[in-house]
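User: I'm putting together a small comparison set for a docking exercise, and I want a reference complex before I start. The sequence is below, and the ligand is flavin mononucleotide. Could you produce the 3D structure with the ligand included, as C-alpha coordinates?
Assistant: Of course. I'll restate your input first, then give the C-alpha coordinates for the complex.
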Amino acid sequence: MSTDFTPRQALGVIDSPVVLLTSAADGMRNVMTVNMVMGVSFNPVLVAISLNPGSFSHELIERSGDFAINVAGPDQISLVERVGSAHGAEVDKFDDFGIVTKAAERVVAPLVDGCPAALECRVIDTHPAGEHTVFIGHVVALHRREGLPIFLYRGDYYEPGNKLGTFFKGEAA
Ligand SMILES: Cc1cc2nc3c(=O)[nH]c(=O)nc-3n(C[C@H](O)[C@H](O)[C@H](O)COP(=O)(O)O)c2cc1C
Protein backbone atom coordinates (compact mmCIF):
# COMPACT_ATOMS: atom_id res chain seq x y z
CA MET A 1 0.00 0.00 0.00
CA SER A 2 1.21 3.50 -0.80
CA THR A 3 -0.22 6.93 -0.16
CA ASP A 4 2.76 8.53 -1.86
CA PHE A 5 2.25 7.96 -5.59
CA THR A 6 2.45 9.91 -8.81
CA PRO A 7 -0.62 10.45 -11.03
CA ARG A 8 0.89 8.18 -13.68
CA GLN A 9 1.54 5.40 -11.17
CA ALA A 10 -2.07 5.50 -9.98
CA LEU A 11 -3.83 5.82 -13.33
CA GLY A 12 -1.30 3.50 -15.02
CA VAL A 13 -2.65 0.41 -13.20
CA ILE A 14 -6.02 0.83 -14.95
CA ASP A 15 -5.30 -0.75 -18.30
CA SER A 16 -6.80 1.27 -21.07
CA PRO A 17 -7.41 1.36 -24.79
CA VAL A 18 -5.18 3.46 -27.02
CA VAL A 19 -7.14 5.64 -29.37
CA LEU A 20 -6.39 7.98 -32.26
CA LEU A 21 -9.01 10.64 -31.57
CA THR A 22 -9.96 12.65 -34.65
CA SER A 23 -11.81 15.93 -34.93
CA ALA A 24 -12.56 18.61 -37.53
CA ALA A 25 -14.14 22.06 -37.59
CA ASP A 26 -14.11 25.19 -39.74
CA GLY A 27 -11.86 23.64 -42.40
CA MET A 28 -9.33 22.34 -39.86
CA ARG A 29 -8.76 18.75 -38.74
CA ASN A 30 -6.74 17.07 -36.06
CA VAL A 31 -5.75 13.81 -34.46
CA MET A 32 -4.40 13.19 -30.95
CA THR A 33 -3.73 10.12 -28.82
CA VAL A 34 -6.14 9.42 -25.97
CA ASN A 35 -6.16 6.60 -23.45
CA MET A 36 -8.72 8.11 -21.06
CA VAL A 37 -11.71 6.58 -22.82
CA MET A 38 -14.50 4.34 -21.59
CA GLY A 39 -18.01 3.16 -22.41
CA VAL A 40 -20.58 4.64 -20.03
CA SER A 41 -24.08 3.60 -21.22
CA PHE A 42 -25.75 0.92 -23.38
CA ASN A 43 -29.02 2.72 -24.09
CA PRO A 44 -28.24 5.11 -25.59
CA VAL A 45 -24.73 3.93 -26.43
CA LEU A 46 -22.45 6.50 -24.81
CA VAL A 47 -18.70 6.81 -24.42
CA ALA A 48 -16.60 9.24 -22.38
CA ILE A 49 -13.24 10.76 -23.29
CA SER A 50 -11.18 13.01 -21.05
CA LEU A 51 -9.19 15.79 -22.69
CA ASN A 52 -6.73 18.42 -21.60
CA PRO A 53 -8.33 21.82 -22.36
CA GLY A 54 -4.99 22.96 -23.80
CA SER A 55 -5.19 20.43 -26.63
CA PHE A 56 -6.16 21.61 -30.09
CA SER A 57 -8.57 18.68 -30.32
CA HIS A 58 -10.49 20.07 -27.34
CA GLU A 59 -11.06 23.29 -29.27
CA LEU A 60 -12.16 21.55 -32.48
CA ILE A 61 -14.54 19.20 -30.65
CA GLU A 62 -16.10 22.13 -28.79
CA ARG A 63 -16.67 23.84 -32.14
CA SER A 64 -17.94 20.87 -34.17
CA GLY A 65 -19.73 18.88 -31.47
CA ASP A 66 -18.38 15.57 -32.69
CA PHE A 67 -15.33 13.30 -32.71
CA ALA A 68 -14.23 9.86 -33.85
CA ILE A 69 -12.54 7.21 -31.74
CA ASN A 70 -10.13 5.22 -33.91
CA VAL A 71 -8.89 2.23 -31.93
CA ALA A 72 -5.15 1.76 -32.53
CA GLY A 73 -3.63 -1.56 -33.62
CA PRO A 74 -0.15 -3.06 -33.02
CA ASP A 75 1.33 -1.55 -36.19
CA GLN A 76 0.37 1.98 -35.09
CA ILE A 77 2.48 2.45 -31.93
CA SER A 78 4.91 4.86 -33.54
CA LEU A 79 1.97 6.89 -34.90
CA VAL A 80 0.35 6.87 -31.45
CA GLU A 81 3.53 8.33 -29.95
CA ARG A 82 3.94 10.96 -32.64
CA VAL A 83 0.37 12.30 -32.69
CA GLY A 84 0.43 12.15 -28.89
CA SER A 85 3.31 14.60 -28.68
CA ALA A 86 2.60 17.09 -31.50
CA HIS A 87 0.20 20.03 -31.26
CA GLY A 88 -2.32 20.25 -34.08
CA ALA A 89 -2.55 24.03 -33.91
CA GLU A 90 1.06 24.14 -35.16
CA VAL A 91 1.25 21.27 -37.67
CA ASP A 92 -1.08 19.20 -39.82
CA LYS A 93 -0.38 15.80 -38.30
CA PHE A 94 -2.18 13.99 -41.12
CA ASP A 95 0.24 15.45 -43.71
CA ASP A 96 3.33 15.33 -41.50
CA PHE A 97 2.87 11.70 -40.45
CA GLY A 98 1.33 10.42 -43.70
CA ILE A 99 -1.97 9.45 -42.09
CA VAL A 100 -4.50 8.13 -44.59
CA THR A 101 -8.09 9.10 -43.77
CA LYS A 102 -11.54 8.32 -45.04
CA ALA A 103 -14.77 10.23 -44.55
CA ALA A 104 -17.02 9.25 -41.67
CA GLU A 105 -20.71 8.48 -42.25
CA ARG A 106 -22.39 10.62 -39.57
CA VAL A 107 -19.77 13.05 -38.19
CA VAL A 108 -17.39 15.63 -39.63
CA ALA A 109 -14.35 14.14 -37.88
CA PRO A 110 -12.34 11.97 -40.32
CA LEU A 111 -11.58 8.28 -39.77
CA VAL A 112 -8.02 6.92 -39.66
CA ASP A 113 -7.49 4.16 -42.20
CA GLY A 114 -6.18 0.82 -40.96
CA CYS A 115 -7.58 0.84 -37.41
CA PRO A 116 -9.24 -2.34 -36.11
CA ALA A 117 -12.31 -0.35 -35.05
CA ALA A 118 -13.76 3.15 -35.01
CA LEU A 119 -16.71 4.87 -33.35
CA GLU A 120 -18.36 8.01 -34.70
CA CYS A 121 -19.63 10.12 -31.80
CA ARG A 122 -21.74 13.22 -31.31
CA VAL A 123 -21.13 15.21 -28.12
CA ILE A 124 -24.18 15.27 -25.87
CA ASP A 125 -22.58 16.59 -22.70
CA THR A 126 -19.36 17.91 -21.18
CA HIS A 127 -18.15 17.90 -17.59
CA PRO A 128 -15.11 19.53 -16.02
CA ALA A 129 -13.08 16.88 -14.18
CA GLY A 130 -10.01 18.09 -12.35
CA GLU A 131 -7.78 19.73 -14.92
CA HIS A 132 -9.48 17.86 -17.79
CA THR A 133 -12.84 18.01 -19.59
CA VAL A 134 -14.92 14.87 -19.99
CA PHE A 135 -16.85 14.79 -23.26
CA ILE A 136 -19.75 12.36 -23.38
CA GLY A 137 -20.30 11.12 -26.92
CA HIS A 138 -23.35 9.39 -28.39
CA VAL A 139 -22.10 6.62 -30.69
CA VAL A 140 -23.86 7.10 -34.04
CA ALA A 141 -21.82 4.72 -36.22
CA LEU A 142 -19.55 1.71 -35.64
CA HIS A 143 -16.78 0.43 -37.91
CA ARG A 144 -15.10 -2.93 -37.32
CA ARG A 145 -12.57 -4.96 -39.25
CA GLU A 146 -10.20 -7.85 -38.60
CA GLY A 147 -7.35 -7.22 -36.19
CA LEU A 148 -6.83 -6.71 -32.48
CA PRO A 149 -6.34 -3.42 -30.62
CA ILE A 150 -3.42 -2.52 -28.38
CA PHE A 151 -3.74 -1.46 -24.78
CA LEU A 152 -1.69 0.47 -22.24
CA TYR A 153 -0.70 -0.79 -18.78
CA ARG A 154 1.74 0.94 -16.43
CA GLY A 155 3.24 2.95 -19.28
CA ASP A 156 3.81 0.04 -21.67
CA TYR A 157 1.91 -0.91 -24.81
CA TYR A 158 0.64 -4.48 -25.18
CA GLU A 159 -1.32 -6.49 -27.66
CA PRO A 160 -3.89 -9.03 -26.37
CA GLY A 161 -2.29 -12.42 -25.76
CA ASN A 162 -4.16 -15.36 -24.25
CA LYS A 163 -7.94 -15.42 -24.33
CA LEU A 164 -9.00 -16.44 -20.80
CA GLY A 165 -12.79 -16.56 -21.07
CA THR A 166 -15.89 -14.92 -22.50
CA PHE A 167 -17.98 -12.15 -20.96
CA PHE A 168 -21.76 -12.22 -21.53
CA LYS A 169 -21.72 -15.70 -23.01
CA GLY A 170 -23.90 -15.98 -26.07
CA GLU A 171 -24.28 -12.25 -26.65
CA ALA A 172 -22.27 -11.13 -29.66
CA ALA A 173 -19.79 -8.34 -28.92
C1 LIG B 1 -0.40 7.03 -24.97
C2 LIG B 1 -0.92 8.45 -24.83
C3 LIG B 1 -2.14 8.66 -24.22
C4 LIG B 1 -2.64 9.96 -24.07
N1 LIG B 1 -3.86 10.14 -23.48
C5 LIG B 1 -4.38 11.38 -23.37
C6 LIG B 1 -5.69 11.57 -22.82
O1 LIG B 1 -6.38 10.61 -22.47
N2 LIG B 1 -6.15 12.86 -22.72
C7 LIG B 1 -5.41 13.93 -23.13
O2 LIG B 1 -5.88 15.09 -23.01
N3 LIG B 1 -4.16 13.78 -23.67
C8 LIG B 1 -3.65 12.54 -23.81
N4 LIG B 1 -2.42 12.35 -24.38
C9 LIG B 1 -1.64 13.52 -24.80
C10 LIG B 1 -2.13 14.12 -26.12
O3 LIG B 1 -2.23 13.14 -27.14
C11 LIG B 1 -1.14 15.23 -26.54
O4 LIG B 1 -1.18 16.26 -25.57
C12 LIG B 1 -1.39 15.78 -27.92
O5 LIG B 1 -0.21 16.44 -28.34
C13 LIG B 1 -2.56 16.75 -28.02
O6 LIG B 1 -2.68 17.08 -29.37
P1 LIG B 1 -3.49 18.35 -29.92
O7 LIG B 1 -3.04 19.55 -29.14
O8 LIG B 1 -3.09 18.40 -31.36
O9 LIG B 1 -4.96 18.06 -29.75
C14 LIG B 1 -1.90 11.07 -24.55
C15 LIG B 1 -0.67 10.84 -25.19
C16 LIG B 1 -0.19 9.54 -25.34
C17 LIG B 1 1.12 9.31 -26.05
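The chain has a mean pLDDT of 96. Residues 7-158 form a domain with the Pnp Oxidase; Chain A fold (CATH 2.30.110.10).
User: Thanks, that's exactly what I needed.
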